[in-house]
Every structure is written in structure tokens, then in C-alpha cells.
Write a structure and sequence with these properties.
- By secondary structure, this protein is mostly helical.
- It has one domain.
- Helix content is about 70%, strand content about 5%.
- The chain has 22 helices and six strands.
- The chain has helices spanning about 10-25, 60-65, 70-75, 100-110, 115-135, 135-145, 150-170, 180-190, 195-210, 215-225, 235-260, 270-275, 290-315, 320-335, 340-355, 355-375, 375-390, 395-410, 415-430, 435-450, 460-465, 470-495; strands at about 30, 35-40, 45, 50-55, 85, 90.
- The strands form two sheets. Strands 4-3-2-5 form a four-stranded antiparallel β-sheet. The protein has a two-stranded antiparallel ribbon with strand order 1-6.
- It is globular and about 70 Å long.
């Protein structure tokens, strides 16, 4: 009898979509009213299922609606998405999602996620051009010689730098570009692909979980909670340093075990396939890193540096990021003197290699659309707020951690979660006599911890790039997640009683 294989990422997401569709038949439909700010008319629009009402953009309007947020947070652009209005939840007519909605959800998701999908495809094209030039092989061979005997530096540097990107501007989707580039480097250092995946994904996840100045998490959540984003910053810095250190030590421990005995790798049965996938078997380690190849590598690296600067300082988003990588590919093509027909073929092949990843992102977005159309997300939020109301403050903070972890399955967007839940949950902090920054912390930590294993997030897309099964990732990451959960709960409890 053939051994049963763990399902692919696409199949896992489709099964989740089926489960969510069933939930829309079981969970009552409901909706909170929301409030949107119109900068052009300097007015609010109160949006409910029955009607939309235009209201004056004043502090008095916010007070009447029970929203304890300074009006300046709207007028200066800090809050740019509609926020949930407390105490406005209403049960609605059920909107069960049937077979037709289920079948259409991946298509709707692909259309809705077109921005990130095109980013992934253009990055794939750029990598295809880089592979054609031979710059990757030369650079990896050079780096392997430089780091010989000190390969552990690679683990520390990559994890720490990506965590820094996560904590400052929410580096997440952009890391999809790093896997095809960095995994061969880790393989050349005699580690396995799990080490490279761990450094990039966990670095991003821990950085975002312990966001300090991230405008898409800390700042927008603090604004929506009606507090200054610097409130509680010290606790988040301590969490960042502690969790990043724990994560790096965990990866180093696994990496040393694999380096000492490759058979201890969780993906040892895929060793040859991994080396073939990332071109290690055909890599010429004696290739010379010429000045032209150095220039090509520099242009390639600058593409990422420009992207990071644009996102963090110039309000760039997917269109600008995608254009940056497209320009980088064209410039590299000119430097390498690649013929036009060869350029197009290599670019198309590189994009095709990441097509399955793009589909995974689209299917995951389709799951979110099913929940939105079924009107069950707000119902879950309503029951969660009722469940936690009036708890002892130590218990309350830790329960909120798990509430946010659970909610992130249904609402994986950090900024979307912040504006929808903070006006609802942050007043609960007042009832248990703790600071509202604790709610911001539980939001970040809960979402961040579950992000490491959340199938509706980015993990399945990352696993598809490196062709590692979700079951093997879970075997790798679960011990770390348990340590991080325990660490978070201890620090949260301390912060509640020393607040």
C-alpha cells in the first residue's frame, strides 16, 4: 500500500475554504457599523448595512459614537481605513456561501491579490535573468569561501536584519523574493533549506510580531486605540530583543545538528531534489566573480535597497515595488548583454517558476473573501469581546493574546485587524483597569505568534517556493512557537501588573 502523502499548499487552502463556507451556514451573520474619514470633504461617513450617513468630522461626533480617538488621528492621515464603531453590532440576514461562491472564491482572490501576485511574478522574472547571467553561482561560491568555518554568521545576520525590517516597516510579502536568492547560500554553507526558510520567515514574523515603529501595525493600532504609539514601546523593544535572540538560538541549534549530521535534517529525504531545485548540483564552485558579475549583483542588491527605502520612507506599495524589480531586470539584461529573445525567455521562465506561489496567495485571499461575504468575521469579534469582558486583568491580557491569534485566521491583515478591532477591544482595557497599550501588545503578539503557522497567511506561499511540506514545517517550528508563547505570556503578565 502506498504511503499517504501530506496534501499540497493549494489543497490545504481549498479544504480551509470548504470549512469556512460551512461556517457561514452555522455562524450567525452580523456586522458592526464602521466610520470612514473623507479627507476631501473633511467629513465622516457612518456606514451600516441599511444606509450610509455623512457626519461632521469633529471630536464631538467621535464622542457621540463612543470612539475615544483624537480627531487629529483622522485629519492627519494616521487612520486611513474605516474603523469599527463600538456597541453597533447587529445580527444580519444569513449570507451562507454555497457551492458557486466556493468555486468562485479562488478567482476572486486572485483578482483581489493581483498586486502581490504581479510582484511575485516580476521577482521570478528578475531571478530568471540573474540565473542566466551566472552571477548567482559566482556570488554564492565567493560567499561560501569567505564564510568557510563561520557560516553561523549568516544565520545571525539574515535573521536579525529581516527582523529589523519586520519591526520597522512590516517586512512580510517582500520576503518572497529572498527565498530563491538565500536558500542556495545556506545550501552552499552545508545547511538545509529549512535553515534558510527559518531565518527569512521567522525573522520577518518575529520582527512584525514585536513591531516598534511599524506604521502598518503598532502605529495604526495605537491610533485606533486612541493612544500615542510610543506608549508601551519599551515593553515591545524588550520583546523584540528577547524573541529574536530565542529564535536565532533555536535556528543555530538545528543548523549545527544538520551540519554535523545531514541525516538529522527534517527534509533529508529531499536533499538531492533541493540541490537540483536550487541548481547546487550543477554549480561551478570555481567560477570567477568578475567585475561584470559584481556589477550585476550590485544592481540586483540595489533593487531591494531601493524597494526598502521606498516602502519605509516614500509611501511606496506594490506598484512601485514591482516596477523597481522590473527596471532592475532590464538594467541587468543590458549589463550582461543578453539578447532580447533570450531575455524574454529567461524572464518568462523565471516568472513561471513562481506561478504556483502566486496562485497560493490568490487562493488564500479567496478564503478571506468567503468570510467577508458570509458576514461571520464581525460575529466572531462580537462574541470574543463579550467573552473577555469583566475578566481579572492578568487573565484578560493572556486570553486576549489567544483571541487575537484566533481572529488572525479570519483576518490575516495586520492593518485591517487593527482598525476593525481596536475601537471594539481597547475600551475593554478600561473596564479591567489596564492601559490600552496592553491591547495593542496582545494584538501584535497574538497575530505574530499565529502567523508562524497560519495557513491563511504567507507560510504556505513560502513553503511552496522552497517545496517543503506544511507538516515538516510544523515539526520544525512548533517547539519554538511553544517557547515563544510561554515567554510572551510571562512578559504580558508582568507588564499588566507593573503598568
Amino acid at each position: 500500500m502506498n504511503k499517504l502523502k501530506f496534501p499540497t499548499a493549494q489543497t490545504i487552502l481549498i479544504l480551509i475554504a470548504v470549512m469556512v463556507a460551512l461556517l457561514t451556514w452555522l455562524v450567525p451573520a452580523g456586522k458592526y457599523d464602521s466610520l470612514a474619514y473623507d479627507a476631501k470633504d473633511n467629513s465622516f461617513t457612518k456606514i451600516s448595512m441599511e444606509e450610509s450617513v455623512v457626519l461632521p468630522a469633529t471630536q464631538a461626533t467621535l464622542q457621540e459614537l463612543g470612539i475615544k480617538i483624537p480627531i487629529e488621528k483622522f485629519t492627519n492621515g494616521d487612520i486611513y481605513k474605516p474603523i469599527g464603531i463600538p456597541n453597533t453590532y447587529k445580527e444580519m440576514k444569513a449570507q451562507p456561501q454555497g457551492f458557486a461562491a466556493l468555486v468562485q472564491s479562488p478567482i476572486k482572490g486572485i483578482i483581489a491579490a493581483a498586486d502581490i501576485i504581479f510582484l511575485i511574478l516580476i521577482i521570478g522574472g528578475l531571478i530568471g535573468i540573474m540565473n542566466l547571467t551566472g552571477a548567482f553561482n559566482a556570488g554564492i561560491a565567493w560567499m561560501a569561501k569567505v564564510l568557510k568555518g563561520r557560516e553561523y554568521i549568516l544565520i545571525i545576520a539574515v535573521t536579525a536584519l529581516i527582523a529589523l525590517g519586520g519591526t520597522t516597516f512590516g517586512l512580510a510579502e517582500e520576503t518572497m523574493a529572498f527565498y530563491p536568492i538565500l536558500i542556495p547560500v545556506f545550501l552552499a554553507a552545508k545547511y538545509d533549506a529549512m535553515v534558510g526558510l527559518g531565518c527569512v520567515f521567522l525573522g520577518s514574523g518575529i520582527g512584525s510580531m514585536c513591531s516598534t515603529v511599524n506604521p502598518f501595525a503598532t502605529i495604526i493600532a495605537s491610533d485606533a486605540a486612541g493612544i500615542n504609539w510610543t506608549t508601551g514601546l519599551n515593553n515591545r523593544i524588550i520583546m523584540l530583543l528577547l524573541c529574536t535572540t530565542i529564535t536565532i538560538l533555536y535556528i543555530l541549534r538545528y543548523a549545527k545538528r544538520v551540519k554535523d549530521d545531514p541525516s538529522k535534517s527534517l527534509i533529508y529525504d529531499q536533499k538531492e531534489r533541493m540541490e537540483k531545485l536550487f541548481g547546487m548540483g550543477t554549480m561551478d564552485t570555481n567560477v570567477k566573480f568578475t567585475n561584470r558579475l559584481r556589477l550585476i549583483t550590485l544592481v540586483f542588491s540595489l533593487s531591494f535597497i531601493v524597494m526598502i527605502i521606498g516602502v519605509s520612507l516614500l509611501d511606496w506599495w506594490f506598484v512601485e515595488m514591482t516596477a523597481t524589480f522590473l527596471v532592475g531586470a532590464i538594467v541587468i539584461g543590458f549589463i550582461a548583454r543578453i539578447k532580447e529573445s533570450e531575455f524574454v525567455d529567461a524572464f518568462a521562465k523565471g516568472a513561471a517558476d513562481l506561478l504556483s506561489v502566486a496562485f497560493i496567495v490568490g487562493i488564500a485571499r479567496g478564503v478571506t473573501i468567503l468570510m467577508e461575504d458570509g458576514l461571520i468575521s464581525d460575529t466572531i469579534l462580537f462574541y470574543a469581546s463579550n467573552f473577555t469582558e469583566g475578566m481579572h486583568k492578568g487573565v484578560f491580557a493572556n486570553v486576549m493574546l489567544f483571541v487575537y491569534g484566533g481572529l488572525s485566521f479570519f483576518m490575516p491583515s495586520s492593518s485591517g485587524m487593527a482598525v476593525l478591532t481596536m475601537p471594539i477591544f481597547s475600551p475593554l482595557a478600561d473596564t479591567v483597569n489596564i492601559g490600552r497599550e496592553i491591547i495593542v501588545d496582545t494584538y501584535q503578539y497574538g497575530m505574530g505568534l499565529f502567523y508562524l503557522i497560519n495557513p491563511t497567511g504567507l507560510i504556505l506561499a513560502a513553503l511552496a517556493i522552497v517545496q517543503i511540506g506544511f507538516n515538516k514545517w510544523m515539526r520544525f517550528v512548533i517547539p519554538l512557537v511553544l517557547v515563544l508563547v510561554l515567554t510572551t505570556m510571562i512578559l504580558l503578565t508582568i507588564s499588566v501588573y507593573t503598568n
